[in-house]
Amino acid sequence: xxxxxxxxxxxxxxxxAMAAGWVxxxxxxxxxxxxxxxxxxxxxxxxxxxxxxILIYVIAAVFAxxxxxxxxxxxxxREYEAWGNEFILGTDNLGRDMLSxxxxxxxxxxxxxxxxxxxxxxxxSILGLLAAIVGGWLDQVLSRAVDVLMAIPALIFALLLLTxxxxxxxxxxxxxxxxxxxxxxxLARAVAMNIVVMDYVEAARLRGEGLWHLITxxxxxxxxxxxxxxxxxxxxxxxxxxxxxxxxxxxIQPPTADWGSMVKDNAxxxxxxDITPLLPAACIALLTVSVNFVVDWQLHRASGLKE
Amino acid sequence: MSDKxxxxxxxxxxxxxRSDESWxxxxxxxxxxxxxxxxxxxxxxxxxxxSTIGLAAMGFARDGCxxxxxxxxxxxxxxxxxxxxxxxxxxxxxxxxxxxSAAASFNPSHKLIDQYxxxxxxxxxMARREAESDATDLxxxxxxxxxxEIGFRYPHQVSGGQLQRAMTAMxxxxxxxxxxxxxxxxxxxxxxxxxxxAAIRDIVEQFDTAAIxxxxxxxxxxxxxxxxxxxxxxxxxxxxxxxxxxxxxTQDYTKSLWAVRSHARAEQPxxxxxVTPVISVRNVTAAYGTIDxxxxxxxxxxxxxxxxxxxxxxxxxxxTARVITGLLPPRRGEVLFNGTALPPNYxxxxxxxxxxxxxxxxxxxxxxxxxxxxxxxxxxxxxxYLGLNGxxxxxxxxxxxxxxxxxxxNYIDRLPSELSGGQKQxxxxxxxLAAEPAFIICDEVxxxxxxxxxxxxxKLLDKLQSEFNLAYMFxxxxxxTVxxxxxxxxxxxxxxxxxxxxKSEMFQPPHDPYTELLLSSVPEMDxxxxxxxxxxxxxx
Lengths: 307, 540
Prior knowledge:
A: globular, B: alpha/beta, 6-stranded mixed beta sheet, globular
């Protein structure tokens, strides 16, 4: 019976999610200008659900002080209080409000992940495109350097670098950006390699165009689709790496709220059958899945596959 | 013919294709009757529905297409209502298909003979050993070199023409009643095309196989078909037996197809020897890696003149263009522009030197950046070389669009994907013109286009040449194009200039043997041409 009820609730959640996605899709189509609305019409329900979720996360992150009932780091009750009227999701191991910390953590974790991914992309794609266009020794040097960096398991490498340079948010951003930019480099180089051999690039070279024009006008616009898709995926990976590092104690430092360390702080509750420590994990999972839904849609569009 | 038994009947065939969300009709009620042993030629431009009808004759519709109406009767079997298993039983056994690109259709990881044996064994016609000896026999009849051994090679180990013949042999494996040939020689050089055509015609006659021969080349279809059906946009224009069709076409569209090759450039007076040529290629030897692909090439191109460079694929035509543009610095020799030597590498050429020599590419699809609008595509060279901006630039772009006969207001903000093949090629021409060059290299600019469209492009190039006194280097493998546009001809083979001279001399004997072979290999509209040519070659 319990199993059937479980199935029933799962079905209810999926249907509710799809309904929310549908409502959101219709809403955006109505609100968007006509060329954008045409694009949005091709959006599957999963993608619109993903977009809706991302939007909610962004709102939570931006307006955290307005939404959260309590401050981020203040001790407002006893430790490990149960869910109730005052503390909707209870309190954590120090007596801070769980819900408020979840909301603030969206700001910290997502914000830092976004900055890190953006850095990784700027570094990785510029070098990747350069390697593809210039070729020769520059390509060899960059590619071999990237091979060496990629040969070391990412998490262990990050831990190693962080113990060397010391743990701070800036250092963490730089270290993860460096490690992830190697992956971006490989993709950008591979995509650009296929574009560089096109006749229009040859025509531009023969016209006497400089490197900057080649990158920004001829190659980047045509490499955009796979890079955008990769941005979404990379964002998830970075995000998971940050959470993992925080869980291990080398990431975002207390008392700053962050989903990874929130799981660690409250892990003992699991043994008492309380699901509260799983909430931050669920936040991570939901955002990751949502981003992937949107990325899948973009990839599908970019690859020109129909149906 | 009509006393023979009817093999295939198609009545009021309608096929729809999916675009965006809706279905559009792409074949609009075509009728077709084919008797046993008869060869029907289907011709028309791209988009006429030739291949779609060919596949429908097997009861098959491509992904995104559906047969929406009409009847397909193959030897009394209704292919539309037959079960998938029944149709599968017919395909490969009684109906076979030969695709345009044999190289893309063979599985690269299996030997030819294994792929040959697949159908007979699957259909239970022959055992493996039997199939293999049969393959060898057919390879011999298809005049493949080394028929006993060739089957044991992989597809990449044989040439394109041989592969196409091996594919025809494969289609013959079960001795089908009907073979559908979908442009089997389009991707081949003229000299190899002949061998394949002869082999196909021979084997179809020997086994009294009926065939549907799809092509856009009239001269080819004239050799192969007993009767011809002309298609336009999914509808039949007319059908008649080959000779009647060639001699007295009744419809205007057919006549225009027939007349396509009539464009010819007026004879130009000879250039006096003391005039400095615009481009002069002097003793150029060039190599990729260590292998010389150009050996001691020399020729001149004068102002207002067109030099056609002809030869098979691999003869070094495009490499010559790469040397002139500076993409491939030559090992020895030099390229002179108006009497002064150009730096061998384009990177060390000045902006003005780059401006003077422009290039138009074979595939307009890959030559135009798909993300830029026409405004920027054409405007960029004008902006870069001539320093035009704002209003002046827009004026110039519109002016250029006028020149290439595209309505400026209508086209200036389009993306390349919103243009047809011929229009894209026109944009390529406009981009070259925008630099106001003295010299333009046209690399196979018409070979990817339908004949009528290609004709339009040639006329446009001709008009622009007389207007701006341009020098053209015209790379092509199509001798009909040479006739239409060239003043002088350079024949290349394996990186060497075999013969060069004014067009009038080139088309008159005596020739170099290779030129002779090239010239005689160009299909003519005369339906007896192939038989006559083969006889002549056998005799000599």
